Amino acid sequence: MKTAFIAFAAAIAAAAAHCADEAAVTDSEIWNEGVGYYEAGDVTNALRVLRNLLPSKAHGLQKEGRALSKTHGARAAEVVAKLEYDRGNLEEAADAAQMALRANPEDPQRANRNFTRAVDGLPQLRETKRVDAILKASQGKDPGAMMLAATYEARALLEAAGTYRTNAPARAVALADSLSGRAGKLADAWIPLREAIAQSVTNEEQAATILTQIAQAEGATKKAAEEIGDMSEDGYATMSAVEHDFTRFLKLSALPPQAIAEDEVAQSNAWQDVAAVNGRSWQQDALDYTRAFRAKFPAWARAYEQQAQADTNKPPFTAEAQAKVSGLATELEKVQIECCEKSLPPSQERALAIIREIRELLPKDGGGQGQQNQQQNQQNQQQNQDQQNKQNQDQQQDQQKDKQDQEQSDQRQDQDPEKDDQQKDSDEDQEKPDSREDQEIEATLMKAQERNDEHEAKKKALMRKAPLPPNEKDW
């Protein structure tokens, strides 16, 4: 026991002596050691040693009794900034350059130039890292499901943007900060879609058109986040445009299983006379999803059939079932057009029955995601029903205003009917380019999805052919 105690005491004495020796090292010696490593080309050790002289480190060492000069600290910070900049570590370089600038070196202009040089590339670097992190998090996820979730988040933000300013000031400020943060994250939803288009579309002109529209929508979403955070009155209008953008791209990009699932929700809301979202008719939304389904179904069915041949686990989708689905979709569109044209639509229940029959005929492998989407949509539908009573009160006032506007419009029409006819023809002509543009975008998005599906099918085929590692089991 005595021997062990003596050994322990000796170890403590040795450690104390080492600390005393280390404390005796001056800043000049540390500087010379770091410069020696630097001249020898040993950047790693040069940084390790010189970092001990940085002003932030020097403050802590001074408390331990080590007298480090401000001159050596500033000079070391400049060297560390240069070495980190050369290695591409802009964050570390900017931190060190800022320390050198604050340490009042002999040449403040040079330190300021070094700091400016280090921070110039930081915004672009940080944005690149942010985009890379978003794309990495989106790998393996269903693009349609992500777009659907983003669309419903946009609708939730639109609803909140119209009411949060009516709260008490403290509560309104807290809500504004929260909603602004959510809107900022919502803007990130455009990044995976933008990347998929850029990588998959071969028609450069179409890709440029779509990417421009996505960039505009992303900018509008960021603008909405700023305006809501500033509690601006313009926040609601900007968020309204953002919700329209998400809904439009959802209709253009939704594959048949998702489109028919959204179709069922929209048709159900139209039948139950649920309050409209952002001024759109639920019945028109249902018709839009039906048309999107019909446009994509033939190519999607062929792609699914090829995947089913390569993957025996996929349920079959026979030619007879495909033909029946096509016929039902054609009938559904006719019924929904009638529902849109008549103020008292007589066939909404028939439309719902057709939609449900189509969903039953679709392969369950392709419709699984649609079931999840339907659950989410039903939650949103319930929220819309809760708002209906409130909005019905406003509707009476709107009807009175509309009646006055209609009377004024009738008077103008009686005065100059030819002018109104010309204006109507002009409006119809303006709608046609938008329709053609949407068709081009829809075809481009579909082509991108087909390429992604072909890649996944080839990857699964290779995985089946490759032998399993000996440490894995074929469950």
What ranges have pLDDT less than 50 throughout 5 or more consecutive residues?
15-20, 58-68, 366-376, 388-392, 426-433, 464-475
Helical segment count: 19
What is the H/E string? HHHHHHHHHHHHHHHHHHH
Assess the beta-strand content as a share of residues. under 5%
Instruction: State the helical fraction.
Output: over 70%
Radius of gyration computed on alpha carbons:
33 Å
Mean pLDDT: 77
- Report the major sheet: none
Name the overall outline.
Answer: elongated
**What is the number of strand segments?**
0
CA-CA gap between termini: 60 Å
- Given helix and strand content, the structural type is mainly alpha
Structural features, described:
Helix content is 82%, strand content 0%. With 475 residues, it is mainly α. Helix 9 packs across helix 18, helix 16 (319-341) runs antiparallel to helix 17 and helix 18 (364-415) packs antiparallel against helix 19 (417-465). The radius of gyration is 33 Å and the shape is elongated.
